[in-house]
């Protein structure tokens, strides 16, 4: 469990550092500096793509915080839905999991059905 906690803390630091860099890098350019409308459009497209990626990182950061809290509470590795132990290989592959493979499969089936 200590190894998982160490991995999560390292990943949290990486995300926070990258988010800080992104915020600093999202300055609005002077539109007079851009040669034409297509350059401005390209800039906005790239900026929106970057912000969507960072939203995914923010969501991962939330999951990391929730997982670290579970470690502190002693409930890490227990499925949120059925209460059974989550498999070690699943945790190793994705430490922020909150559902065992069976419950995750059922959740995805429910989502597909709509």
Describe the overall structure.
The protein is mainly α and 114 residues long. The protein has two domains: 1-74; 77-114, no CATH class. It starts with a helix and ends with a helix. Helix 1 (2-25) runs antiparallel to helix 2. Helix content is 70%, strand content 0%. The mean pLDDT is 86.
Keywords:
single chain, 114 residues, mainly alpha, 4 helices, flat
Q: Number of domains in the coordinates?
A: 2
The low-confidence parts are none
Instruction: Give the helix proportion (percent range).
Output: over 70%
Tell me the total number of β-strands. Answer: 0
Largest sheet: none
Rg over alpha carbons? 20 Å
Give the SSE string: HHHH
3D shape? flat
Mean pLDDT equals 86
N-to-C span: 36 Å
Query: Count of DSSP helices?
Result: 4
Portion in strands:
under 5%
Structural class: mainly alpha
Topology:
Elements lengths: L1 H24 L11 H37 L14 H6 L7 H13 L1
Short description:
It contains four helices and no strands. It has helices at residues 2-25, 37-73, 88-93, 101-113. The two termini are 36 Å apart.
